[in-house]
Amino acid sequence: MSKTGALDLASGLGGKIDKEGVKSAVDEYEKYHGYYGGKEEARKFNYTDMVNKYYDLSTSFYEYGWGESFHFAHRWNGESLRESIKRHEHFLALQLELKPGMKVLDVGCGIGGPLREIARFSSTSVTGLNNNDYQITRGKELNRLAGLSGTCDFVKADFMNMPFSDNTFDAVYAIEATCHAPDPVGCYKEIYRVLKPGQCFAVYEWCITDHYDPSNATHKRIKDEIELGNGLPDIRSTQQCLQAVKDAGFEVIWDKDLAVDSPLPWYLPLDPSRFSLSSFRLTTVGRLVTRNMVKALEYIGLAPEGSQRVSNFLEKAADGLVEGGKKEIFTPMYFFVVRKPLSE
Questions:
Q1: pTM above 0.85, yes or no
Q2: pLDDT in tens, 314-323
Q3: What gap in Å lies between CA 47 and CA 231, rounded to an integer?
């Protein structure tokens, strides 16, 4: 159901940003990041603007390359990327013990690929929280095409200040989304507030690992590349995330970096040494084709000026992710399940 053609990619570039404003949006977005001399404090202070610009600029590329679910996955030998992504979502639903009729919140839902898959898998009603107009527009259309408009919906809001009453949801999850939060404790506290007592929150977090050395110039460059190419104010460590969720009031049920024992590396789809027909657009050859296609589309005016630069910083992110994965200094799947106590 996702848009997959070159013209769809071109028409979606820039999201809700006017075509004439894409180049200046790219200028402003790049200046936030350490790779171009930007400061962490500015990224955190202006995180709403930075993240919205990022997803307006990048969503069309994500949908073109990944489909509807913009995340990595623990992967078995012989398993396709799409199969592993679905299983990764099902695993989360099972860890939350979702049951038919439960009211569930997806924090930072993208265009709703996981939301729809989890709703179908668990027969629950899922609300997607998102602060980006373009992604919500796409998500609503995909819900309609999937016949899920009655059980899945979207709410436009900031996950640091949710428009829900206390104790609203039976379960909450986030998939590679709360890494955009400027303050993890504040974000987790909002999740705590809207979750019913005794119920659980599960999350896949993007984190640096214990192997990361902040004094190592190569490690720092990789971190900067990942932050630039993924709209992140800062990448926190696994221990920082775990402490933050405790500080928010949750009880930790269990936590684990699922990348550690994945039979196939999570970064395999982006590895330049690999070739795959099933996920061709993510391979080195596929990325070259996309790069030249975007260049041509921008040249003839179908894609807005600045589109090549978006493609470039997304490729830089891919390279940083692969290098970070190989050096084991970064993981996109630090997973934990936590519970809101029955009584406070």
A1: yes
A2: 888 889 999 9
A3: 9
